[in-house]
Amino acid sequence: MTQPMIQSQKLLSPVDLCSAVMERVINAEFREKHKAKGAPLAMLAFAEEVTKKITRPKQFADYFDGMTMTVPWCSEAGNNPEYHSIVGQKLLYVDWQNLYDLEMCCPHATCTGVLSNDRHNFSKHKTLFPIYGLEGALAWCIVQKIECSCCKRPFDANDGEVLLNILPHIAEDYPVKTAYATTNSTSHISRNASEIFATLMIAYGNGELCSKLLYDAINRAYMGRIKTYYSLALSRKESSTTTPNEYIPKDGSFIRQCPPLGDTIRDLYNQAASSATNRWGISDFERNTREMQSVKCVGIFAQDHTFEPIKIT
Q: Number of structural domains, the chain?
């Protein structure tokens, strides 16, 4: 008896991904449909191709490093400013069940249910969740929606409470501290950025400085991309008579969603400092308070000099 032949799906090459992205980006219907979205059009097109050709067939191992896929470079990127603008950016697929084969318990202490996948944020509304950092351009996430089988509470796979129910060596693949992975947030700040910001939050006004640092990271990434794009065009000038396409503008194309303002970052820092959503179950505020309360004054005279001088009548 002849055994049936099993045909393996052809792996997508960087050129295939670039062609798929450009085909969508130049489509007038695609541009009109996603004109109000926060993610760049090229990243939305890339995520759509990844969802269709990679995540649905569950070919994660061939393209993803953990939960992260990096937009690959290809020779055609030098001719396509839209695709060139997202080369090197990160697309995260936050799905603990399909990627890591995990069975997660409900985060609520009084519930014994198990979390199961529902749908992700890109399946219906075609939206991507941003992570701001100091490394350059934003990272964008396809985030799985999950629901408890017992209490029916809904969660996002990148909620801090969900991350705490996952072994640390796996949860670390999502690059955000659990205390900063707040529920119902419209964006997250990367682990590296939040740790740096914590050292800057001595004065209230430093929240504005942190916001400017996030803006500066995006600006520097954009300037670097312009330099490499036109440098490639210059290197091909001797063998080509065509003029390179003009690079995409920064505001409204390269970045369509701005980083949080200083007040928002300050509020997030205060909320994280008072949050017990961490591995040790005690907030930084409580820990610092107990450290100060444990200081003793033995055999030393202490006096408060802040009182108003006594007036002699």
A: 1
